[in-house]
Amino acid sequence: MLNQTRKLLKELGLNGMAEAYEQQMESASFAGMGFDDRLSLLLEQEKNDRDNRRYERLRKQAKFKLSAFMEDINYRHRRGLDQAMMQGLQNCEWIHSGIDIIFTGPAGAGKTWLACSLGHQACRNGLKTQFHRLTILLEELSIAHVDGTFHKKLKQLQSLDLLILDDFGVGAIDPKSRGDLLEIIDGRTGSKSTVITSQLPVSKWHDYLSTGNPTAADSILDRIANSSIRVELSGESMRKLQRP
């Protein structure tokens, strides 16, 4: 009967429940528990198993640069990071509300690490997330224009619950790439969240984007920079401070 029940649970795709059922049947500690209590434990194990598998799937799809988690954020060093504000982001309500976040600061300040920690938290909450180094993404979109997959890729980017664009402002941006960036941002504004990291302070973004077309720069800034949560980091490199 044990093997038959376990086999049936697995055939139904209830792998977590099957494992928990086997544990219950093989351990005397569950013998005194009532049916409802034991069933509740089986269902809880099934939910945990599904949540874990969903997180692993979303994490792999996100392709994070770093394994970073919000519970490991370093608040000891002064770098302009508001602990209460960051902890308030853990429930991911800001993503459901389509709010954007911008991390700026010098190299080594932890911008990418913090962005990845928010991304991992989003995956934990079952939200579709992707991490992209912006220069590489814009190169991929340039190729997509040629091979006819641009609109498909753009639609996929716009459908993400959270999009992380790392290293904004590294290298020159040509008119086509600037237009592609506007397409990405425009399709997400107000309904989907974007996290951007940059060594450039936001005050210099317009100059960076406006070469040859200040209107496009105005459009991009209006959609993301003027209504986002801004975190301006400072201080010494975290990599330097954490060296043994």
Find the count of extended strands (DSSP E, 2+ residues): 5
Percentage beta strand:
5-15%
Q: Rg, please?
A: 23 Å
Q: Give the SSE string.
A: HHHHHEHEHHEHEHHEH
Secondary structure class reads alpha/beta
Going across the major beta sheet, what is the strand order? 2-3-4-1-5
As for the number of domains, it is 2
CATH fold name of the largest domain: Rossmann fold
Overview of this structure, please?
The chain is an alpha/beta fold. The protein has 2 domains: 2-61, no CATH class; 63-241, 3-Layer(aba) Sandwich (Rossmann fold), CATH 3.40.50. It is built from 12 helices and 5 strands. A 5-stranded parallel β-sheet has the order 2-3-4-1-5.
Index terms:
244 residues, alpha/beta, five-stranded parallel sheet, 12 helices, 5 strands
In brief:
The protein has 244 residues and is of the alpha/beta class. It has helices at residues 2-11, 15-26, 35-62, 83-88, 93-96, 111-124, 134-147, 150-159, 175-188, 205-209, 214-225, 238-241; strands spanning 101-104, 129-133, 162-168, 193-198, 229-232.
Blueprint of the fold:
Layout lengths: L1 H10 L3 H12 L8 H28 L20 H6 L4 H4 L4 E4 L6 H14 L4 E5 H14 L2 H10 L2 E7 L6 H14 L4 E6 L6 H5 L4 H12 L3 E4 L5 H4 L3
Parallel strand pairs: 1-4, 1-5, 2-3, 3-4
Helix pairs in contact: 1-2, 2-3, 3-6, 7-8, 7-9, 8-9, 9-11
